[in-house]
Amino acid sequence: MALFDLPLDELRAYRSASTEPEDFDSFWARTLKEAREHDLAARFDPVGIPLKTVTVHDVTFAGFGGHPIKGWLTVPAWANSPLPTVVEFIGYGGGRGLPHTHLLWASAGFAHFVMDTRGQASVWGGGETPDPVGSAPAFPGFMTRGIEDPETYYYRRLFTDGVRAVEAARSHPLVDAARVAVLGGSQGGGIAIAVGGLVPDLAAVAPDVPFLCDFPRATTLTDRAPYREIGNYLKTHRGRTEQVQRTLSYFDGVHFAARGRAPALFSAALEDQTCPPSTVFAAFNAWGNTDKEIEVYDFNDHEGGGPYQQAAQLRWLPARV
Questions:
Q1: What does the alpha-carbon distance between residue 71 and residue 168 come to, in Å, rounded to a whole number?
Q2: Which of 32, 66, 89, 287 is a Cys-bridge partner for 188, taking CB atoms 3.0 to 4.6 Å apart?
Q3: H-assigned helices in 90-171
Q4: Which of 5, 131, 161, 272 does the annotation list as catalytic?
Q5: Catalytic site residue 186?
Q6: Does this model's pTM top 0.90?
Q7: Which of 152, 203, 200, 205 is nearest to 175 (CA)?
């Protein structure tokens, strides 16, 4: 696969043409206020599995609408006082999976909170969190569910779940509330950027080849799913482009990034046709803290740096939390 996006020097200067809604802040302030009217009700049930180096808890907390959201909390078995904590969000189609697949961060001495993804988790990973909210007709997938209006859009619920996940993690006695970082790859990276813009006191944010950024460019540059779901929806629902673009503007990672105050470590892959590098750089260049870095993988597609990016995160994160 050849390089298909802007040259690297242009990527480093690229700015998105996405237009921020005038009521962006009030929309999200109201959304989170409504979510917090429900008791967080975070529950951490011990899981009896034969792992000697970690302790695992099956988590349930109230997300958007008070809906129960699942997760895992994994901590080093030796932990007896609050730890720096990583809250992780999952890529498109996946879920929290099984607890023994989440050992990296606890092995590095962190508490690790993995949020399940409502309504997904049947492409890979597996999960246990339904999305009880329906929508008008949508293209198969999640990108167009409720896309008629920002109030009903699927990612309003999922981004809110992400904020509540941070709050749930902070409620556990082995989590140091002042040293919480969020991260994730692809969709998980997009959620991390949104949470980074909505939670002002995070210690760090680390989006890996993030999805859900610079919708105006992404939806016209790549034919790959999941962005292509939006184009396929508009092929059938002719004349709704302006309406859809308005909805997406409330969920564009570029606008959340502008509100990001924590140090950030991004990654981009120059052959990535799922999350094109210009869309990643759009969010990175907009990030509101000058303490930011981006790892660039010249000849990789959406796998990005894979374990090399995890190694970069393991080097970078301890100095921030």
A1: 10
A2: 89
A3: 104-107, 154-170
A4: 272
A5: yes
A6: yes
A7: 203
